[in-house]
Amino acid sequence: MTLVKFNPNNQKKSLMPGFNDAFESIFNDTFFNDRMVSRVPATNISESADHYHVELAAPGLKKQDFKINLERNVLTVSVEQTTENKADGRSYTKMEYSYNAFVRSFTLPETADEHGINATYNDGVLTIAIPKREEAKTISRQIEIK
Questions:
Q1: Residue 130 parent element (H or E)
Q2: Which residues of the chain have pLDDT under 70?
Q3: What's one Pfam family here (predicted)?
Q4: Pick the CATH number of 40-84+98-136 from 3.50.30.30, 2.60.40.790, 3.40.47.10, 1.25.40.10
């Protein structure tokens, strides 16, 4: 499983670098940046001898907020949450740690056994364990030196 991330260093260099710097300073970390950039939880993907592991950092949610679907070898994790305005006497200038909705999709390798997938949500981390098929499990053995 692989995720492709955007790398701003791969963009072409501007003919007017001062303009880009001014533009970036005006719109960086403001309304446009907050609304235009998709907010999705950070993800760790790892592999053990008999499982693939996907971990999503999504604090502040409940396990009932998550929907996990598997369709045609694509595992999709989604959350859609309605935000309630709390009348706690605060006026927020910026709120960064509220997920209203997100979708993350992962293409499972052919060696994954889709029938044994299980998920747990504990301490703000959604952990999905995807077992490997029997023929794909790593077999290790000691090799004798002659």
A1: strand 125-131
A2: 1-38, 82-88, 95-99, 138-140
A3: HSP20
A4: 2.60.40.790
